[in-house]
Specification:
389 residues; alpha+beta; Elongation Factor Tu (Ef-tu), domain 3; 11 helices; 27% strand; elongated; binds flavin-adenine dinucleotide
Length: 389
């Protein structure tokens, strides 16, 4: 195997994903620094390229800390310097056409690969080291030495942009946490988030609805998410469940299967419940069987039946677990924000060490929030490196 001799860089970026690419692109455009990027895959931006079904949900009409798990003030500070309007302007300036879905999600019309291509083009002149797996890091007098399976790399400034642990099949790893720990930074272990939830036996009735969906409101703790929920073979999924999973680790969640309706409105009808209620017949028949109520006109329900039917508005249960890292869109956890300055993303402990993107313990809901975070944190970091140099 080819083993590189020691490389010296002004800035070394670890990971050529969304945040690493944006950081390299911004540094190249705004400085004359000598930049290297180390990436385990043979190409850049693999996760970015498959995201949003290949169309990349890049941001949202409304981006604020309430859509993130993590310290609000930290998130707000970063977005103040580079928020969704800044990202939209950036994409517009570079002729990336977007489309708005469900009146809130921005998707890339020409496909996610157009974003990867744009960032690679803007990062032109950067030294990319592909198929190179990062193992560890040590501080040295001139900066940092990164040890890889293809030799050591030295740099005055180091940017950790190695992402989270979800989708290991396309190169994801927990190396960012290991590197941070080697540098004595506080970390929280990664756990799967934006992921489907598995069910206990009591809720297996939902599995029989596999392949169908409905609009719901899910409550987890003090968070309320309204979106589509998908019944899956393994449990429950779809946008509502994925976002809810961000805030769930154990305990109960509550689902309102009729988020915009009052139940009593439909109970005076002479029609059978499965026809009168604005839910699919298949759903209603399965639900009624689960709660042990016959399909009958609403006015014939006795008090006990009515009470059970009311569970449609507040179905409370404890999921068994989640679908795991192989299905999770992101990883919760990472490098604690107390270690970083939100104005720069630089370590408070080590000069010229930066952490950006998903490796930082900030995680967004479904809806373009995670790319917004990756691009915002990368831009704030790159601007500070340029300013310092
Ligand atoms: C299927 C899927 C769909 C998604 N869709 C969306 C979406 O539509 N909208 C949205 O906002 N978010 C989406 N996300 C989440 C989003 O992709 C991530 O939050 C974002 O890519 C994080 O950027 P990052 O730069 O921090 O990490 P990444 O983009 O994951 O980049 C990290 C890079 O580091 C490299 N790396 C890791 N370990 C090593 C190592 N040991 N050695 C060398 N290199 C290493 C990886 O190969 C990777 O290229 C999706 C995620 C998945 C899995």
């Amino acid at each position: 195997m080819l083993v590189f001799m020691k490389h010296g860089f002004d800035v070394l970026i670890l990971g050529a994903g969304a945040s690493g690419l944006m950081c390299a692109a911004e540094l190249r455009r705004n400085s004359r620094l000598n930049i290297g990027v180390i990436e385990g895959n043979s190409v850049a931006g693999k996760k970015l390229a498959i995201s949003g079904g290949g169309r990349c949900n890049i941001t949202n009409i409304e981006v604020s800390p309430e859509h993130f798990l993590g310290e609000d003030a930290f998130v707000a500070e970063v977005f103040e310097h580079f928020g969704n309007e800044d990202l939209l302007n950036y994409l517009h300036r570079h002729a990336i056409a977007l489309e708005l879905r469900k009146e809130r999600y921005y998707f890339c019309r020409e496909g996610a690969k157009a974003i990867v291509a744009l960032l690679l083009q803007r990062a032109g002149g950067t030294d990319f080291f592909y198929d190179t797996h990062i193992h560890s890091v040590t501080p040295i007098p001139q900066g940092y030495r990164v040890h890889t399976d293809r030799g050591d790399f030295d740099a005055a400034t180091l940017v950790i942009a190695t992402g989270g642990e979800s989708y290991r099949s396309i190169g994801a790893s927990a190396i960012g946490i290991k590197l941070a720990q080697e540098l004595q930074l506080q970390t929280t272990p990664f756990t799967p988030a934006l992921v489907g939830l598995t069910l206990q036996k009591e809720q297996f009735w939902m599995k029989t609805l596999s392949g169908t969906s409905c609009n719901v409101r899910i409550r987890v703790g003090n968070k309320c998410i309204e979106e589509e929920m998908l019944f899956a073979h393994k449990g429950i999924s779809g946008p509502a469940v994925l976002s809810a999973s961000l805030y769930w680790s154990k305990g109960e969640i509550e689902i309102d299967f009729l988020p915009h309706e009052e139940l009593h409105v439909f109970l005076n009808s002479k029609k059978l419940l499965s026809t009168a209620l604005p839910l699919s017949k298949r759903f209603m028949k399965t639900f009624l069987e689960h709660i042990g109520v016959e399909d009958m006109p609403g006015h014939r329900l006795n008090a006990s039946m009515l009470m059970r039917l009311k569970r449609l508005k507040s179905y409370t249960f404890a999921p068994a677990g989640n679908f795991g890292f192989s299905k999770a869109e992101v990883s919760r956890g990472g490098i604690d924000v107390c270690e970083l300055d939100a104005r720069t993303l630089m370590s408070r402990r080590h000069a010229n060490l930066y952490c950006i993107g998903e490796v930082v313990d900030i995680t967004g809901e479904l809806g373009g929030y995670n790319f917004q975070w990756a691009f915002s944190s990368a831009t704030v970091c790159a601007r500070h490196i340029c300013k310092k140099n």
